[in-house]
DNA sequence: CCGGAAAGTCTACACAGTGTCGAGTTTTCT
DNA sequence: AGAAAACTCGACACTGTGTAGACTTTCCGG
């Protein structure tokens, strides 16, 4: 609860601390890939960023806060780019475009996204971040379903519920596939796309 | 790696230790519900089972081992009952039966199943256990798809891939829904059933 | 029913990682 | 220049883990 960088808003000149902060986050991402969340200690983090543990605690209150910030950074970057998805006329094209976009996202940020999913239970902050992200996807999927003629509503055979289920299918399929290889990811994507289309009544 | 109860096979008379072991596992399940995996310490576990930490380490090497044993116990119980699923003639009935069965499972053991999913990444033992469970489900779903006329094979529009994707959809939907309420769980179930049927070409 | 082995239990200890404190140094702004 | 803010560090207290070794209880063959 020490008010350090919460008070530091956008700034003209770049503080030394902004550098450090970025270094910490980058180190965190690297260590996450290298040894995983559990095994990564605050000491490792500090060492990787070239400072001592004490100094790190000036920037972040805990390991969880560091990871939360990393997830926030990634997820923000993700929100910006995903708003242009829904604007295609043909639902079939919209689905294909959305899936392509999502594959790119997972190829680029799979590690952080998997971490976010893993920690959403134990770290409420990350849970909230990820829920919001999922909602974005659910809304997008639901919109496409409705455009394809699925009636709106919360009943099992209506768009909203189906959108949610399909989102979870994609999340989980990609979670597993992105752990394996980009190749598996694109196969998983094709499968999900097919089920999505079928569910929307767009059987070729 | 201390050879204590690994050597103790099935036994006519029930050792005192078997009692303890069960007490520990029961306590573990209770604590998991009460405070979650992270917050639960080995001390809590021991206290709940009415012994000291030292005594607990006689039975299990670590907190992870306790939880692994709990997951194993639950999942075994689960394997036994799920083998009778595939024997219905009408695919529509088979799907309905499978979903009903799965809802029961999640209502009864949702907590342990969610824990298993959460830990499958960090605890390889649990990962293996859960993978095997998932494979069971995937195989069952795939079988029903094929019986309904979906061609077998690994291509995106063929049974095997679709079975996997549908399994993940169900897992994730149930994971979230079972956290909320039995009511949400049954709604999620209905949605998943609808998508499954549609994917199998069994549109009413 | 006795005596040794196996099973079970406990207290004490060593260790690793966390988070905090207060005293210093550097940077920034005026 | 000089005060305030930003930043850094080493040392400390605390919590939880896993291990060691001594002790008690239970089992079971002779």
Short summary of the structure?
By secondary structure, chain A is mainly alpha-helical. Chain A has helices spanning 16-39, 42-49, 53-59, 63-81, 91-119, 124-147, 159-180, 182-199.
CATH superfamily of the largest domain in chain A: Tetracycline Repressor, domain 2
* Tally of discrete structural domains of chain A: 2
Coarse morphology of chain A = elongated
The largest β sheet of chain A comes out as:
none
Number of helices of chain A: 8
The multimeric state of the shown protein is homodimer
End-to-end C-alpha gap of chain A: 57 Å
CATH class of the largest domain in chain A: Mainly Alpha
Strand content of chain A: under 5%
- Uncertain segments of chain A are 1-12
Order of helices and strands of chain A: HHHHHHHH
Mean pLDDT of chain A: 90
Structure classification of chain A: mainly alpha
Number of strands of chain A: 0
Helicity level of chain A: over 70%
The CATH topology of the largest domain in chain A comes to Tetracycline Repressor, domain 2
CATH architecture of the largest domain in chain A: Orthogonal Bundle
Most extensive interface between two protein chains, with residue counts = A-B, 30 and 30 residues
Measured on Cα atoms, how large is the radius of gyration of chain A?
20 Å
